[in-house]
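S2.1 Query sequence (Histidine kinase)
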Amino acid sequence: MAIFIQKKNLSILVHLLGWIMLCVVLLLLSPLSWRMGEVELPYQFWLKQVFLIGILIAIFYSNSSFLVPKILLKGKNYLYLLIIILGAILFYGLIVYFEQFTGYGRAMHQVFNPDKPFEPGRRWLPGDVFQLLLYVISIGLSTSVALVEKWQKDEALRREMDQQRINTELSYLKAQINPHFFFNTLNNIYALTNLDVSKAQEALLKLSRMMRYVLYENQKNETLLSKELHFIGDYIELMKMRLSSKVKLNIQIEEPKEDLIIAPMLLLPFLENCFKHGVSSQKESEILIKIEIMGDTLFFETRNHIFPVNPDSPEAHENGIGLTNTQRRLSLIYPEKHRLKFGKDESKQEYWVNLTINLA
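Output structure tokens follow.
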């Protein structure tokens, strides 16, 4: 609200300064330069100047506040043009009537041409052209101002709608990721209950700690990078409990030296992908998870072997929901501030991910 009031006050100030400049340059400075010191302009001249200023102000705001938004922007172009032409005729008629009512023509003739007889019906053509030019300028400026204000309002509305759309979409994407994460984790704990009850109990404790993080941090738009990395560490420790000796983990996670900010649970789907496709109960495999922080930039890398997923498992039907949503979140939250590359190394039968995010 304070910003809105400041912008409104600034707009009023700009309008006021604009009219002061117009009055000084067009209506005062030029007349005062006429034969300066030789003649004294009659009071009828200054009355007309004040009258002219008042009419121009009325024309300006009538056009910008009513004619442009109610007629021109509604597509009634010909009606608008007709009104402008009729307005020019009315403007000229009011000027002529005012001059006749105040005796402007006779007074100016006596000042500039005292030796010649006054002809009431005769007018000075350059003066009429100048006055009509002022009318055209007032119409042109007010139309431009009205169109710019309309564009600014439309742009502000578009930005607000885009922000609302982004917030709604991000909420939807995060809501998709949360069940996806718990689905995989609970499957792991269920498998542990048949193998080692104590490990299953330990896993439940870690899961409860992660659930607190999800409940409190994932509802926010951002969290501390240190908290996110602790969450990732808990997740990796949980995954270790179900891995056999055939899986080698190469974990390199650097602790941040500064309190950087990151979107919560942004890296989790990449880790889920490693453990989902990079683990085999029969063959040896290696999973690399590497996180480095240099200044405000986070470098994230994963590598894992590719093993086919059991077609009877629920994971086989997920179609990469987590990864797809993460790509979308990155494009919404870090536009032009991230670089994501991923692919398969057929020679090594590996899947790799390289992600760089500027967290400044």
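The mean pLDDT is 78. The beta strands are 223-224, 247-253, 261-262, 285-294, 297-305, 338-345, 350-358.
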